[in-house]
Amino acid sequence: MAESIETKHENWLRVxxxxxxxxxxxxxxxxxxxxxxxxxxxxxxxxxxxxQTCNQCQVNSKCQNGTTKVTEKSRFRPGHxxxxxxxxxxxxxxxxxxxxxxxxxxxxxxxxxxxxxVAKCYLSTSGYLxxxxxxxxxxxxxxxxxxxxxxxxxxxxxxxxxxxxxxIRNKTLHDACYELDGQTADICLDKMITVLEDxxxxxxxxxxxxxxxxxxxxxxxxxxxxAIMTEPFRKLLRMNLNVEMALTEIEKLMNDRLRxxxxxxIVDEVKREVRHSLGVRGDDKREQVKTLCxxxxxxxxxxxxxxxxxxxxxxxxxxxxxxYVPPMIVKKDPRKVGVAEKKDFGTRITSDKQLFCxxxxxxxxxFIVGEAGMGKTAFTSxxxxxxxxxxxxxxxxxxxxxxxxxxxxxxxxxxxxxxxFYSKPEEDDRWANHISSTKSSQQTLLERFVSKWRHLxxxxxxxxxxxxxxxxxxxxxxxxxxxxxEIDILFHLTLRDSCDLCDLTDMIRDQLIDRIYQHDEIAxxxxxxxxxxxxxxxxxxxxxxxxxTHPKWNLQL
Length: 557
Prior knowledge:
With 557 residues, the protein is mostly helical. It has 20 helices and ten strands. Helix content is 56%, strand content 6%.
């Protein structure tokens, strides 16, 4: 279905609004990098000109400050401060061709303004001479500084994305019809998000991250452009003015207000719209969160309810509830782990609430540590399954009376097996020796098994059973449902599948949201996720910390 002219105007405004967020997201980053760049230049210059001072040399013919005008015929004095700074600026430009019409070189050595006057040499167009900081420069100017400065450029992963957004800005703001189709507008907004989430450094910048979140909301159409943009725009359309006049008027109205406090303006507008949206569509938000929970529950029941029945049969999966036995978990003082462990067994944990909660609130962090094969991964899967059953009628964990009875029978058989080993140790040893002497292709594997078995018997006889007499009690552990009533959403992650990420929210998007939602639903689902993480009681289970490596620092935990 063809889009109306009004809809295309709204798409154009969404892209313009997104560019304002690009501007806001880059301001702090350009300011920080500009100062780092200036410090590097000053160290180079002072080392060559013996800390000389100068505030009179002027390279910009349009600037009235300074008594010594520098031209093609009248250059800087060799070895002078301004001459050395000029060389650093030129050599750092990606095309060795700085633009001098925006800088005041008499301030290059100024301790407060020097860094910004140097940074302005990397702008691509004139018109910024009177701009005293990044907060007064538009998105195109900030992007050009990032692209033209080799110092800043090296801290950016994909500089071509910056070039694409700059081209989007120029094309959009000079569109004589102020129109964009919805698909093109979404592509433009996606490219803006890509710039603000550049993987090398910007992804860790708080302002860039916040700006990316706001652009996602613009793309999902959950936020409308503020009236300060829409009202003058509609007025100018009715007057049928040309594009240059329209842009000049809109930018003037916007910049007059943005100069005072750009960040506060946008935050206030967004908060107002969000409050209004939540008030009008509170039921919709709750329904979206409920849908997220239901999809997560279905996904867990499908993906987590099976596991290999034995490390020796890794390709043979079986329903987890048919053979799962809760592991023995004890709480220990982290300062004492590994020290005199035979004397201090800690406090035994027998319920999910005891593990995840401290008094009446959820613990901030819980670390489960144990040797490979002790059941940590299976335990995390069962935690997710038990939560999933809270939102689904399909039971996939041992909850029925029949299943409880089956588990008791299994436990009785296991205790009988233990009694057999305790009463006839000489037969155990003869049986083990027989297996050890068997010659087959699995001899080495069997020998390892026998060694582990003997160690296990020794552990039970000498250490574990005397310390935990309650093991003999006929009870089922970790069967409490109270924890699921106290948390709203549980996210189950496998860290080895996200070694290219280090933010848990990004991992949830990659491993869960992108898999349980259709492509056209993902943008809205991201917003639901962000709202849930902020406003709901959430538990994030991240399995396999020892298998995860930090994508930037390459540090394995």
